[in-house]
From TrEMBL:
Protein name: AraC family transcriptional regulator
GO MF terms held by the record: DNA-binding transcription factor activity; sequence-specific DNA binding
SUPFAM superfamilies: Homeodomain-like, Probable bacterial effector-binding domain
Keywords attached to this entry: DNA-binding, Transcription, Transcription regulation
Domain HTH araC/xylS-type as annotated: residue spans: 10-108
Source species: Anaerocolumna xylanovorans DSM 12503
SMART domains named among the record's database cross-references: AraC_E_bind, HTH_ARAC
Xref: Pfam families: GyrI-like, HTH_18
Length: 283
Protein backbone atom coordinates (compact mmCIF):
# COMPACT_ATOMS: atom_id res chain seq x y z
CA UNK A 1 0.00 0.00 0.00
CA UNK A 2 1.32 3.42 -0.89
CA UNK A 3 1.94 5.97 1.82
CA UNK A 4 -0.12 9.13 1.94
CA UNK A 5 2.95 11.03 0.76
CA UNK A 6 3.50 8.97 -2.40
CA UNK A 7 -0.23 9.09 -3.15
CA UNK A 8 -0.16 12.89 -2.96
CA UNK A 9 3.02 13.13 -5.05
CA UNK A 10 1.44 10.98 -7.75
CA UNK A 11 -1.70 13.12 -7.56
CA UNK A 12 0.49 16.18 -8.25
CA UNK A 13 1.97 14.40 -11.29
CA UNK A 14 -1.55 13.51 -12.49
CA UNK A 15 -2.56 17.15 -12.08
CA UNK A 16 0.46 18.23 -14.13
CA UNK A 17 -0.41 15.79 -16.93
CA UNK A 18 -3.95 17.14 -17.06
CA UNK A 19 -2.72 20.74 -17.23
CA UNK A 20 0.28 20.54 -19.58
CA UNK A 21 -1.64 22.63 -22.10
CA UNK A 22 -3.02 24.92 -19.38
CA UNK A 23 -1.73 26.97 -16.47
CA UNK A 24 -0.26 24.99 -13.58
CA UNK A 25 -1.02 26.84 -10.36
CA UNK A 26 1.20 26.71 -7.28
CA UNK A 27 -1.87 27.00 -5.05
CA UNK A 28 -3.33 23.87 -6.63
CA UNK A 29 -0.06 22.00 -6.02
CA UNK A 30 -0.01 23.12 -2.37
CA UNK A 31 -3.59 21.96 -1.91
CA UNK A 32 -2.89 18.52 -3.40
CA UNK A 33 0.38 17.93 -1.55
CA UNK A 34 -0.92 19.54 1.68
CA UNK A 35 2.16 21.67 2.33
CA UNK A 36 3.59 25.01 1.16
CA UNK A 37 4.71 24.96 -2.47
CA UNK A 38 8.27 25.92 -1.49
CA UNK A 39 8.64 22.79 0.65
CA UNK A 40 7.22 20.61 -2.11
CA UNK A 41 9.52 22.21 -4.67
CA UNK A 42 12.65 21.70 -2.58
CA UNK A 43 11.78 18.05 -1.90
CA UNK A 44 10.95 17.42 -5.56
CA UNK A 45 14.32 18.82 -6.64
CA UNK A 46 16.28 16.80 -4.08
CA UNK A 47 14.44 13.59 -4.95
CA UNK A 48 14.47 13.83 -8.75
CA UNK A 49 17.60 15.90 -9.37
CA UNK A 50 15.69 18.44 -11.49
CA UNK A 51 13.44 21.34 -10.62
CA UNK A 52 9.67 21.03 -10.85
CA UNK A 53 9.64 23.65 -13.64
CA UNK A 54 12.22 21.64 -15.60
CA UNK A 55 10.10 18.50 -15.28
CA UNK A 56 7.08 20.39 -16.64
CA UNK A 57 9.17 21.82 -19.48
CA UNK A 58 10.45 18.38 -20.47
CA UNK A 59 6.98 16.85 -20.44
CA UNK A 60 5.51 19.69 -22.50
CA UNK A 61 8.26 19.47 -25.11
CA UNK A 62 7.90 15.68 -25.21
CA UNK A 63 4.21 16.04 -26.04
CA UNK A 64 4.94 18.88 -28.46
CA UNK A 65 7.23 16.54 -30.42
CA UNK A 66 4.43 13.96 -30.56
CA UNK A 67 1.99 16.58 -31.84
CA UNK A 68 4.43 17.72 -34.52
CA UNK A 69 4.88 14.14 -35.72
CA UNK A 70 1.26 13.05 -35.57
CA UNK A 71 -0.94 16.08 -36.26
CA UNK A 72 -1.24 18.83 -38.85
CA UNK A 73 -1.36 21.58 -36.23
CA UNK A 74 0.66 24.68 -37.04
CA UNK A 75 3.93 25.12 -35.18
CA UNK A 76 2.73 28.37 -33.61
CA UNK A 77 -0.47 26.69 -32.40
CA UNK A 78 1.52 23.89 -30.76
CA UNK A 79 3.85 26.48 -29.22
CA UNK A 80 0.91 28.39 -27.71
CA UNK A 81 -0.70 25.14 -26.57
CA UNK A 82 2.30 24.34 -24.38
CA UNK A 83 2.82 27.79 -22.96
CA UNK A 84 5.25 29.46 -25.40
CA UNK A 85 4.30 32.96 -26.48
CA UNK A 86 6.14 32.93 -29.78
CA UNK A 87 7.39 30.49 -32.37
CA UNK A 88 10.95 31.69 -31.73
CA UNK A 89 10.91 30.95 -28.00
CA UNK A 90 9.37 27.55 -28.74
CA UNK A 91 12.00 26.80 -31.37
CA UNK A 92 14.87 27.65 -28.99
CA UNK A 93 13.45 25.50 -26.17
CA UNK A 94 12.59 22.63 -28.51
CA UNK A 95 16.06 22.60 -30.07
CA UNK A 96 17.73 22.69 -26.66
CA UNK A 97 15.87 19.53 -25.63
CA UNK A 98 15.62 17.59 -28.88
CA UNK A 99 18.65 18.86 -30.78
CA UNK A 100 16.66 19.99 -33.82
CA UNK A 101 14.05 22.59 -34.71
CA UNK A 102 10.28 21.91 -34.72
CA UNK A 103 10.13 22.19 -38.51
CA UNK A 104 12.80 19.49 -38.88
CA UNK A 105 10.52 16.98 -37.18
CA UNK A 106 8.16 17.05 -40.16
CA UNK A 107 10.74 17.01 -42.92
CA UNK A 108 12.88 13.96 -42.20
CA UNK A 109 13.30 10.82 -40.14
CA UNK A 110 14.62 12.14 -36.85
CA UNK A 111 15.64 11.02 -33.39
CA UNK A 112 13.75 12.74 -30.58
CA UNK A 113 14.04 12.78 -26.81
CA UNK A 114 11.25 11.32 -24.70
CA UNK A 115 10.70 12.05 -21.00
CA UNK A 116 8.21 9.77 -19.27
CA UNK A 117 5.58 10.80 -16.79
CA UNK A 118 7.02 10.39 -13.29
CA UNK A 119 5.63 7.88 -10.85
CA UNK A 120 6.61 7.80 -7.18
CA UNK A 121 6.86 4.59 -5.19
CA UNK A 122 8.01 3.95 -1.66
CA UNK A 123 10.60 1.20 -1.57
CA UNK A 124 12.11 0.57 1.84
CA UNK A 125 14.36 -2.37 2.59
CA UNK A 126 14.15 -3.15 6.27
CA UNK A 127 17.74 -4.31 6.49
CA UNK A 128 18.99 -0.90 5.38
CA UNK A 129 18.43 0.96 8.61
CA UNK A 130 18.58 4.73 8.96
CA UNK A 131 20.00 6.09 12.20
CA UNK A 132 18.85 9.52 13.27
CA UNK A 133 19.03 11.78 16.30
CA UNK A 134 16.47 14.30 17.50
CA UNK A 135 18.03 17.54 18.71
CA UNK A 136 16.52 20.54 20.48
CA UNK A 137 18.71 23.51 19.61
CA UNK A 138 18.59 26.98 21.09
CA UNK A 139 18.79 29.98 18.72
CA UNK A 140 22.14 30.36 16.97
CA UNK A 141 23.74 32.47 14.28
CA UNK A 142 25.69 31.54 11.15
CA UNK A 143 27.96 33.91 9.24
CA UNK A 144 29.37 33.25 5.80
CA UNK A 145 28.79 33.80 2.11
CA UNK A 146 25.31 33.38 0.65
CA UNK A 147 24.83 33.20 -3.10
CA UNK A 148 22.30 31.93 -5.61
CA UNK A 149 24.11 29.82 -8.20
CA UNK A 150 22.91 27.85 -11.25
CA UNK A 151 23.53 24.51 -9.58
CA UNK A 152 23.56 22.94 -6.13
CA UNK A 153 26.74 23.61 -4.17
CA UNK A 154 27.96 26.33 -6.53
CA UNK A 155 28.61 28.65 -3.60
CA UNK A 156 31.47 26.37 -2.51
CA UNK A 157 33.22 27.11 -5.81
CA UNK A 158 32.79 30.84 -5.10
CA UNK A 159 34.30 30.83 -1.59
CA UNK A 160 37.19 28.62 -2.65
CA UNK A 161 38.14 30.94 -5.49
CA UNK A 162 37.56 34.48 -4.19
CA UNK A 163 39.49 34.27 -0.90
CA UNK A 164 36.41 34.10 1.34
CA UNK A 165 37.48 30.80 2.89
CA UNK A 166 40.85 32.27 3.88
CA UNK A 167 39.26 35.47 5.23
CA UNK A 168 36.84 33.57 7.46
CA UNK A 169 39.76 31.50 8.76
CA UNK A 170 41.67 34.66 9.64
CA UNK A 171 38.62 36.04 11.44
CA UNK A 172 37.47 32.90 13.28
CA UNK A 173 40.35 30.43 13.18
CA UNK A 174 38.48 27.89 11.04
CA UNK A 175 37.32 27.42 7.47
CA UNK A 176 33.75 27.15 6.25
CA UNK A 177 32.19 23.87 7.30
CA UNK A 178 28.45 24.44 7.08
CA UNK A 179 26.31 24.45 3.96
CA UNK A 180 22.87 26.04 4.41
CA UNK A 181 20.31 25.27 1.69
CA UNK A 182 17.59 27.91 1.52
CA UNK A 183 15.87 26.35 -1.48
CA UNK A 184 15.84 25.87 -5.22
CA UNK A 185 14.47 28.31 -7.79
CA UNK A 186 12.09 27.32 -10.59
CA UNK A 187 15.10 27.13 -12.95
CA UNK A 188 16.98 24.76 -10.62
CA UNK A 189 19.24 27.47 -9.17
CA UNK A 190 20.29 27.00 -5.54
CA UNK A 191 20.12 29.64 -2.80
CA UNK A 192 22.98 28.40 -0.61
CA UNK A 193 25.25 29.70 2.12
CA UNK A 194 28.71 28.50 3.13
CA UNK A 195 29.18 29.42 6.77
CA UNK A 196 30.24 28.70 10.30
CA UNK A 197 28.33 28.87 13.56
CA UNK A 198 29.23 32.17 15.22
CA UNK A 199 28.29 33.99 18.42
CA UNK A 200 30.30 37.13 17.80
CA UNK A 201 29.36 40.42 16.17
CA UNK A 202 28.45 40.63 12.50
CA UNK A 203 31.53 40.82 10.30
CA UNK A 204 31.94 43.15 7.34
CA UNK A 205 31.82 41.36 4.01
CA UNK A 206 29.96 38.34 5.34
CA UNK A 207 26.26 37.46 5.34
CA UNK A 208 24.45 36.33 8.48
CA UNK A 209 21.51 34.08 9.21
CA UNK A 210 19.92 33.55 12.62
CA UNK A 211 18.07 30.35 13.44
CA UNK A 212 15.31 30.41 16.05
CA UNK A 213 14.94 27.72 18.67
CA UNK A 214 13.92 24.57 16.80
CA UNK A 215 13.70 20.80 16.72
CA UNK A 216 16.21 19.17 14.39
CA UNK A 217 16.79 15.73 12.89
CA UNK A 218 20.42 14.66 12.50
CA UNK A 219 21.57 12.05 9.96
CA UNK A 220 25.07 10.93 8.96
CA UNK A 221 26.45 10.48 5.45
CA UNK A 222 29.72 8.58 5.75
CA UNK A 223 31.42 6.78 2.87
CA UNK A 224 32.58 7.20 -0.71
CA UNK A 225 32.30 10.52 -2.53
CA UNK A 226 32.37 8.82 -5.93
CA UNK A 227 29.48 6.56 -4.97
CA UNK A 228 27.32 9.60 -4.16
CA UNK A 229 27.02 8.81 -0.45
CA UNK A 230 25.72 12.27 0.46
CA UNK A 231 23.15 12.33 -2.33
CA UNK A 232 22.00 8.81 -1.52
CA UNK A 233 21.36 9.69 2.12
CA UNK A 234 19.36 12.75 1.05
CA UNK A 235 17.38 10.54 -1.32
CA UNK A 236 16.50 8.10 1.45
CA UNK A 237 15.57 10.92 3.84
CA UNK A 238 13.12 12.39 1.34
CA UNK A 239 11.81 9.12 -0.09
CA UNK A 240 11.81 6.81 2.91
CA UNK A 241 12.22 8.51 6.27
CA UNK A 242 10.13 11.67 6.04
CA UNK A 243 7.09 10.12 4.31
CA UNK A 244 6.83 7.45 7.02
CA UNK A 245 7.86 9.47 10.06
CA UNK A 246 5.86 11.92 12.15
CA UNK A 247 8.16 14.78 11.10
CA UNK A 248 8.12 17.25 8.23
CA UNK A 249 10.56 19.96 7.19
CA UNK A 250 9.76 23.23 8.94
CA UNK A 251 10.82 25.54 6.13
CA UNK A 252 14.03 26.75 7.77
CA UNK A 253 17.18 26.11 5.72
CA UNK A 254 18.68 22.65 6.10
CA UNK A 255 22.35 22.27 7.00
CA UNK A 256 25.11 20.03 5.73
CA UNK A 257 27.94 19.97 8.26
CA UNK A 258 31.16 18.87 6.56
CA UNK A 259 33.24 17.06 9.15
CA UNK A 260 35.50 15.42 6.56
CA UNK A 261 35.66 15.64 2.77
CA UNK A 262 38.71 14.32 0.91
CA UNK A 263 38.45 13.58 -2.79
CA UNK A 264 42.01 12.22 -2.73
CA UNK A 265 40.96 9.33 -0.52
CA UNK A 266 37.40 9.30 -1.89
CA UNK A 267 35.86 9.60 1.56
CA UNK A 268 33.48 11.91 3.34
CA UNK A 269 31.69 12.37 6.64
CA UNK A 270 28.80 14.84 6.57
CA UNK A 271 26.09 15.49 9.13
CA UNK A 272 22.70 16.39 7.65
CA UNK A 273 20.67 18.62 9.96
CA UNK A 274 17.01 19.24 9.15
CA UNK A 275 14.75 21.63 11.11
CA UNK A 276 11.40 19.89 11.53
CA UNK A 277 7.91 20.14 12.97
CA UNK A 278 5.47 17.36 13.82
CA UNK A 279 2.90 16.63 11.12
CA UNK A 280 -0.55 17.84 12.10
CA UNK A 281 -2.12 14.43 11.54
CA UNK A 282 0.40 12.93 13.99
CA UNK A 283 -0.28 15.33 16.86
Amino acid sequence: MQSDWTTRMNSVIDYVEEHLSQDIEENDISRIIACPFSLFHNSFTQITGISFAEYIRRRRLTLAAYDLQNTDEKVIDIALKYGYQSADSFRVAFKRLHGLSPSDVRTSSVTLTFYCKLHFELNIKGVEKMNYTILEKEPFKVIGVRRTTPYGGGTWAVVKSDGSNERINELCGRFFGLGLCFGFGPDGSNDYMCGIEWNGADAAGFDTYEYPKATWLRFEAKGSIAEQTLGNVWYRINNEFLPQSKYQKSGLPTIEKYLFWDEGTDSCFVEILIPVTVKKDRL
